Amino acid sequence: MTTALSRLAVPELYVRQKRELAEFFGFETRNKYAISTPDRHEVFYAAEQRSGLLGMLAIYLLGHWRSFDIAFFDDQRAEAFRAHHPFRFFFQRLEVSAHGRPIGALQQRFSVFTKRFDVLDANGALVLEMKSGLLKPWTFPFFRGERQVAVIEKKWSGVLTEMFTDKDNFRVAFEDPALTDDQRMLVLAAAVFVDLQYFERKAQS
Q1: CA separation for the pair 108, 106 (Å, rounded)
Q2: pLDDT tens digits, 178-195
Q3: pTM for the whole structure
Q4: 26 Cβ contact partners less than 8 Å away, ≥ 6 residues apart
Q5: Could you read off the pLDDT of 25-59 as tens digits, one per residue?
Q6: DSSP of 19-75, one letter per residue?
Q7: Helix and strand element counts for the chain (H, E)
Q8: Is 65 exposed, middle or buried (0-12, 13-18, 19+ CB in 10 A)?
Q9: Are 96 and 185 spatial neighbours (Cβ–Cβ below 8 Å)?
Q10: Which end of the chain is more exposed for a tag (fewer CB within 10 A), N or C?
């Protein structure tokens, strides 16, 4: 576990969604992501843990409200940590753990014009806040008090990709070297969570 988490001690990572052939023909497959350094060295992989007919029905009928798990693996395919999203219609939540040890959670808060999440530690204490402004819907900064300490940015993938597929790319910047491994895990998990919440095609589309 220590070896895997040491790969988080970098200034930035890139999260790239991996599209499968079936998606070209209108069949939603489980979400998969490759996570790399700026020089494209892949250090983590993430995959939604669902299978079978029930899993396919859940994404079509329930969209981003569905219950799901995302497992994060290192480059040796060993699980480093995972995130669980319980079924919710309102105030979405993502719970992160590593080998059974609770890390913390992202909890959505009421907001009219912005996207706002509290980042909680394993004891439920507030450690960071994520706020996405109305004029920057593709940018998700994290704050400790008034200071920005990390940011998730969705990168433009091109007209055809943006219009016809779910394939997304994100930059995750850890701007404060004092961020702990647990906080970095929460921020990285948030990048996948942001994609599933705000950029994945919903069932009604």
Answers
A1: 7
A2: 999 999 999 999 999 998
A3: 0.82
A4: none
A5: 344 456 799 999 998 899 999 998 765 555 555 55
A6: PPGGGGGT-----EEEEE-TT--EEEEEEE---HHHHHHHHHHHGGGS-EEEEEEET
A7: 4, 12
A8: middle
A9: yes
A10: C
